[in-house]
Design a protein that fits this description.
- The structure holds 2 protein chains of 2 kinds.
- By secondary structure, chain A is an alpha+beta fold.
- Chain A has a single domain, classed as 2-Layer Sandwich (Alpha-Beta Plaits), CATH 3.30.70.
- In chain A, 26% of the residues lie in helices and 41% in strands.
- Chain A is built from 5 helices and 5 strands.
- Chain A has helices at 28-32, 57-60, 63-66, 68-73, 77-81, and strands at residues 2-9, 12-19, 38-45, 48-55, 87-93.
- Chain A has a 3-stranded antiparallel β-sheet. A two-stranded antiparallel sheet of chain A has the order 3-4.
- In chain A, β3 (38-45) and β4 form a beta hairpin.
- The longest helix of chain A is centred in the last third of the chain and has 6 residues, at 68-73.
- The mean pLDDT of chain A is 93.
- Chain B has 4 domains: 1-78 and 240-265, Nucleotidyltransferase, domain 5 (2-Layer Sandwich); 92-236, ATPase, nucleotide binding domain (Nucleotidyltransferase, domain 5, 2-Layer Sandwich); 281-393 and 555-572, 2-Layer Sandwich (Nucleotidyltransferase, domain 5), CATH 3.30.420.40; 394-540, ATPase, nucleotide binding domain (Nucleotidyltransferase, domain 5, 2-Layer Sandwich).
- Residues 254-278 of chain B have low confidence and may be disordered.
- The longest helix of chain B has 23 residues, at 485-507.
- Chain B is elongated.
- The chains are: A alpha+beta, B alpha/beta.
- β1 of chain A pairs parallel with β19 (418-424) of chain B.
């Protein structure tokens, strides 16, 4: 189950997408994120609860700014460090 | 040398006349509906004040969002150049200049010489601009000065969830209903706004000295909050609202200027009608409850319920052994636990059942953690996915849920499992709340918006701004241009459908496709989305003993989860 954290507003689209089924909560992305925007939390897959990486609530509505520097340097630490290939990121300004 | 700068902003036109490096006149008039008229008016006022003759004014440099609209300008300078020029002129050590206007916010990083090294701008979303504060003062029934000084008396820092002006207004109203002190609310408003501004500025890096200009710089509440968010002191010029006009005037020497004498047309300024009449609630939609005929709760083994406390509507569904028995929909009050209790009681009304007879209750929606009788809270995504599969059958692959304050796009596999989803609750564009704002503006009852929007021969181009606040101003100017209400609604619904289509693309669209939530009843949205995706929504199944309501999909899904969780509990 891919969860797209983020939003689209008049200025563009900004997402961090995490596949909760692939994620094994190894926490590497959490350590690598220069903005400390990720954490481990409970996500319900069907009726089972699972501990996975999620985007911190306080960052979900400002991904445009949170993720700007990684995207400008083209070093998407979370996505590149994930051994399971569970993270993808989008940052497109209009 | 005499040079004139004119800043044609979203709300006000500002003019500054500089003679030999000294400011000799300033004027400001509201931008109104015709910026070119207001620009002439502001220029005339400034010239009168300066004691100069019209023929002395040979150079007029325009800047601001509506700079194009003035016919008197002999040159133009970009907003970031004007603000950098002004910032470094007023404060020679300025390295960062922040300008917060009514409908935009910008920041510039300059070097020692005042050259621009980098800049950021936000002019696509009203959150983070003066419009945000303005809207909240209306909700708080305060004026700008009152709100600023009141916020400094706040005792508690309370967080504000809303990132959008439209949602912010509802949140403030809720906080007032909860008897939160106005001072604390005012501070929360400023903190939310400075959080956005500081996030934007941080992209440039914060290099002192930091200068703040624009009308918002006069607001003590915002200044105090922004200082603490940025962690630096802010330098603010006297009359910061004129800074960009001054910057434009100072830029004149840099620009190529065509020397000509201007003459100002004599135009009378109208005072603009705001159409203030008796307030009718055009957004109001009907509340109702329903019991499915021919079912006997006494024979049921498992009675499960789902309560979906949305930001705008509360829904409850009660099921007997996994089959829908009753449901109810009403407007969410300011108190979520109370709304949850009320809606469940209403759904149970006349059935002989009470809350105690229900084996398991799941809460969902925006207020799901505030459903006191729920054993478990489940995200609305899971509930909407499951509810849609129940209403339309297991062939449903894509669900678009358009609620009051969010839009969800959900993909489901053939086993009914969710494979991908997103929820956009940052921006009001396309949401039910956004639609209510336009219904109110045009005085069209909310249930008729869709039908009206389809009464056009050809769809006009979509409104260019998706931000509801900007789209609202745009709609007003379209009406002024002579567009009919139907055309404006068509243009608005068109833009909102495009937005929803983009969100759907993020998760991928596959038939069978359905729309749930309040906006599934907006035919103007449904038809346009069908056109965009190239196929129709599944029709509501007619084979049941009664027609289900897609607005209750979340509550139905929650009731199904209740049943599953109850069975799991029994097995354990």
């Amino acid at each position: 189950m891919i969860i797209h954290y983020g939003y689209q507003d008049g200025s563009g689209k900004y997402y961090v997408s995490i596949d909760a089924e692939k994620c094994n909560a190894c926490k590497v992305c959490i350590e690598k994120c220069p903005q400390n925007a990720l954490k481990i939390d409970t996500v319900m897959i069907d009726i089972e609860d699972k501990q996975v990486a999620v985007v911190h609530e306080s960052h979900r509505k400002k991904i445009q700014y949170t993720c700007a520097s990684c995207h400008q340097k083209k070093e998407i630490h979370c996505a590149q460090s994930c051994k399971k290939g569970a993270i993808a990121a989008t940052w497109e300004k209009k | 040398m005499i040079s004139t700068g004119i800043d044609v902003g979203a709300r006000n036109v500002k003019v500054v006349i500089v003679n030999d490096g000294k400011v000799v006149a300033k004027s400001m008039v509201p931008t109104g509906f015709d910026p070119s008229v207001s620009a002439s008016d502001a220029l005339r006022k400034a010239i009168e004040q300066s004691g100069l003759a019209e023929s002395d004014i040979k150079q007029i440099i325009a800047t601001g969002v509506n700079a194009e609209m003035t016919s008197h300008a002999t040159g133009k300078v970009s907003m970031v150049r004007a603000m950098a020029k002004a910032g470094t002129y007023l404060f020679p050590n300025a390295k960062t200049v922040i300008d917060v206007g009514a409908e935009d916010a910008r920041a510039v990083k300059c070097d020692e010489k005042g050259n621009i090294a980098d800049f950021v701008a936000n002019d696509r979303c009203a959150a983070g601009a003066g419009a945000f504060i303005e809207a909240m003062t209306r909700a708080l029934e305060l004026n700008l000065e009152e709100m600023g000084s009141l916020s400094l008396k706040a005792e508690k820092a309370i967080p504000m969830n809303a990132q959008c002006v439209i949602f912010g207004e509802s949140e403030v109203v809720t906080l007032i209903h909860q008897k939160t002190p106005k001072a604390d609310i005012a501070r929360a408003v400023y903190d939310a706004m400075s959080d956005r501004i500081s996030s934007m500025v941080r992209r440039l890096g914060i290099n002192p000295d930091v200068v703040l200009i624009g009308g918002v710089a006069k607001d003590v509440g915002l200044v105090s909050s922004l200082k603490s968010k940025l962690g630096v002191d802010l330098l603010i010029p006297e009359e910061p609202e004129f800074a960009s006009a001054l910057g434009a005037a100072l830029s004149s020497a840099l620009e190529h200027i065509e020397d000509r004498v201007i003459s100002l047309p004599k135009v009378e300024m109208g005072d603009g009608d705001n159409g203030k009449g008796a307030k009718k609630e055009y957004w109001r939609w009907p509340e109702y409850r329903k019991t499915v005929e021919g079912m006997d709760p006494k024979k049921a083994k498992i009675i499960s319920a789902g309560i979906d406390v949305g930001s705008v509507g509360s829904k409850a569904a009660v099921m007997l052994d996994g089959e829908i028995y009753t449901w109810a929909i009403m407007r969410t009050g300011s108190n979520s636990p109370e709304s949850a209790t009320k809606i469940l009681n209403w759904a149970l009304e006349g059935t002989g059942l009470t809350e105690k007879d229900v084996h398991y209750i799941v809460g969902t929606g925006y207020g799901r953690v505030n459903v006191p009788m729920a054993k478990k809270a489940i995200t609305e995504i899971a509930c909407h996915g499951r509810g849609a599969s129940y209403i339309w059958g297991p062939t449903v692959k894509t669900v678009l849920d358009v609620g009051g304050q969010d839009i969800k796009a959900i993909r489901i596999d053939e086993k009914g499992k969710i494979t991908s989803f997103l929820m956009n609750d940052k921006c009001a564009a396309g949401t039910g709340r956004g639609m209510e704002v336009i219904a109110d503006l045009l005085s069209v009852p909310i249930q008729e918006v869709g039908a009206h929007s389809l009464q056009v021969e050809k769809d006009p181009p979509p409104v260019s701004s998706t931000c509801v606040v900007f789209a609202k101003s745009e709609s007003v100017s379209l009406l002024r241009k002579g567009w009919t209400k139907e055309m404006v609604l068509a243009s608005y619904c068109n833009a909102m459908s495009l937005r929803m289509h983009e969100l759907l693309n993020k998760v991928g669209i596959e038939p069978n496709f359905v729309i749930t939530g309040g906006q599934s009843k907006n035919i103007g949205i449904v038809k346009r989305i069908e056109r965009l995706i190239g196929f129709n929504c599944l029709p509501l199944p007619q084979n049941r003993n009664c027609e289900l309501d897609p607005q209750t999909a979340g509550a139905i899904g929650a009731a199904l989860f209740s049943k599953a969780l109850y069975e799991k509990e029994q097995r354990a």
